[in-house]
Amino acid sequence: MDLTYTPEQENFRQEARQWLEANVPSEPLASFDTPEGFEAHRQWEHKLNSGGWAMVPWPVEYGGRGANLLEWLIFEEEYYRVGAPGRVNQNGIFLLGPTIMEYGSPEQKVRFLPKMASSEEVWAQGWSEPNAGSDMANIQATAIADGDAYVINGQKTWASRGAYAHWLFGMFRTDPESSRHHGLTFILVPLDTPGITVRPIEKINGKKAFAEVFFDNARVPLDNRLGEEGQGWSVAMATAGFERGLMLRSPSRFQNTARKLVELYRKTLAAGGFVDPALRDRVTRCWVEAEAYTLNTYQTVSRLMAGDKIGAEASLNKIFWSELDIRMHEAALSLLGARAELRPGAPGADGVDDWLDGFIFALAGPIYAGTNEIQRNIIAERILGMPRK
Amino acid sequence: MEFNFSEDQQLLQQAVRDFLEGECTPAAVRELWETETGRSKTFWSQLAEIGVPGLLVPEDDGGLGMDERDMVLVLEEAGRAALAEPVISTAAVGVPLLVELGELGQSGLTKKWLGPVASGEAILAVGHAQSPFVADAHVADLLLLPQDQDLHAVERGDVTLTAQPSNDQSQRLFSVDWSPSEKTCVAQGTEGAALQGAAFDRGVLACAAEQLGVGQQLIDMAALYTSQRQQFGVAIGTFQAVKHRLANAKVQVEYARAVVYRAAHSVATGSPQRSTDVSMAKVMAGEAALFASKEALQVHGAIGYTYEQDLHIWMKRAWSLDLAFGTSAWHRARLADAIIDGQAPASAFGYCAPGS
């Protein structure tokens, strides 16, 4: 155990820092859940990709930088430190990308990964259906092979980024006689395919963050299947692992929030007025827990780099970061007091930052990527060995 | 940057685990509770054969010459087995304090004691400012005691002990009546204060490591019990209300783990963030162990509340360790001083790396 960075790692950090400081937009971009914000974020991704920083842990031939996971953590630290924009194509780069790396054919890798890294193609997720939420094995949408195409019928819902994305990945039932997690296949679907209707859904802040997607005899080439037919469940579990685990939520995101929270506490105290005495402890705990999440991630990365695999542990991860995110935003709103209620742009909203939107976003954390109740079942059954029935 | 333990470190941990699983059974723990000292000379000499008391003793003085990164795994196993022997006072805190005293000119004292400690013949007890009591003073041959900023070394024959029976029968606490003198003083002023501070932080780390083991053991016992206990015709471990309690405890223990290991690294390498890092470790591991004790008791139901069932062995460890070497509340206050007021160095690991 040696928790210091090598000179090479320090150099990598400096290189990332210099590029980011020179290139990160000086003004925050509009939310990527608005049409103009979506385009602005894609332009940023394009710039990031031109600098070779869009997907640092990917191989160079697929648009990456060939860096290892530790360097990726360092990059993420610099990315959040400098306040760079959120990643509009996170479904692609953090979830589908690693899945294609593991299950894709050579042709699929060349076809999909570079355009994903550049965000020329932005991806939506297509897991849930009206009757397949936590019970994902109850998927009903079908994809029936017909000549050179799958003919897709049915409905997906809560498709994250679905309102503006170009492609959707998801699971469909290719064997209509099958049930539960058998007979499912992982398919990559262009959303401009005839027969597909996308209906955006507004989340509680009115932004179009996700969508319902209707399929009416939509024909998608057989080549768009990822992994073997009928093996969709295993492929999807790999994707879900990335989503719950370290790829989607790198620790620096939470460290950055914790740092802002400590600053907000100091500022609020310095401004006089009432500050709940319990907040000193709450803020301290948030900071400590962000640190714990970081250390845990570094430990996981060390394990992965030594050749270990992570499985059900990703569920521990997902519970911890999603609930920490809420606690941090709740503490911030408590510090803001009456002003916590102000929408951005209100005359009195100076200094309230984006804590309110952050709080609303954080509330989704324990629900998406498998509810935390499902994660707790996984921990109990697969880590603690408790009985399923 | 490497967070993994080496193969040698894992082998040492396994050796300690194997020994304790065989010898330090719940029945053996209970048997010791009924004895006057609560300590076993046999255990201690067997632990000395594995090298535990001399783990941090330099090789030249007959020890293994290892550091806290090795010790942390041994202490985790001690917690898992509810081992009552004075591993913390002697091996984790007393030895490095003697080594540091040697570096400051007290080489006579160091040479006299390190060898016998490593071979299991001598035991150390260390007092600190956060507790009016000294643990394991009754079996100690040498006591290292603070007096304001100064540090004193006093042999057992020169102190009077009053036992303070403790709820955790594995813990033996004493009030120590002694007379500080020029002869007993081994470090003064800022030097003495620095030694006290370092010794205290080592104790904090050691408790945190044991708390990890205690928390994990409580979860394992509860998972096993609820997988077997039947009600309504099924194992109660099938119920989500039961599963989720233990899953929550597991999350807490796992998110304490890397914090404890990092603290071991900080102590071993003399990091300027040492005090903050060990406080963080004790808060995270201590609260995880306390939480695990409550959830484990609840899912056991009435049987877990009995003296006959073994659960309380570890519950009591969780409670007593939380109060040893500074309570969680004390450490949270120290963390707030560091993080919010900037009174002590606190890192955001990686995020504000050197050069930033």
Task: Explain how this protein is built.
- The complex is a heterodimer of chains A (389) and B (356).
- The mean pLDDT of chain A is 94.
- By secondary structure, chain A is an alpha+beta fold.
- Chain A is built from eleven helices and eight strands.
- A four-stranded mixed beta sheet of chain A has the order 1-4-5-8. A four-stranded antiparallel beta sheet of chain A has the order 2-3-7-6, with no helix packed on it.
- Chain B is of the alpha+beta class and 356 residues long.
- Chain B has a domain at 194-339: Butyryl-CoA Dehydrogenase, subunit A, domain 3, CATH 1.20.140.10.
- Helices cover 56% and strands 10% of the residues of chain B.
- Chain B is built from eleven helices and nine strands.
- Chain B has a four-stranded mixed beta sheet, covered by helices on one side. A three-stranded antiparallel beta sheet of chain B has the order 2-6-5, with no helix packed on it. Chain B has a two-stranded antiparallel sheet with strand order 8-9.
- The longest helix of chain B has 40 residues, at 189-228.
- Chain B is globular, with a radius of gyration of 20 Å.
- The mean pLDDT of chain B is 97.
- At the A-B interface, α1, α3, α7, α8 and α9 of A face α7, β9, α8, α9 and α11 of B.
* Outline type of chain A: globular
**Largest binding interface between chains:** A-B, 64 and 54 residues
- Major β-sheet profile of chain B: 4 strands, mixed
Per CATH, which architecture of the largest domain in chain A? Up-down Bundle
N-to-C span of chain A: 41 Å
Low-pLDDT residue spans of chain A: none
Query: Strand order across the biggest sheet of chain B?
Result: 1-3-4-7
| Helix-strand string of chain A | HHHHHEEEEEEEEHHHHHH
The tally of beta strands of chain B, per DSSP, is 9
CATH homologous superfamily label of the domain at 194-339 in chain B = Butyryl-CoA Dehydrogenase, subunit A, domain 3
The rounded Rg of chain B comes to 20 Å
CATH homologous superfamily placement of the largest domain in chain A: Butyryl-CoA Dehydrogenase, subunit A, domain 3
Number of helices of chain B: 11
- What is the CA-CA span between the terminal residues of chain B? 18 Å
Q: Order of strands side by side in the largest beta sheet of chain A?
A: 1-4-5-8
Structural class of chain A: alpha+beta
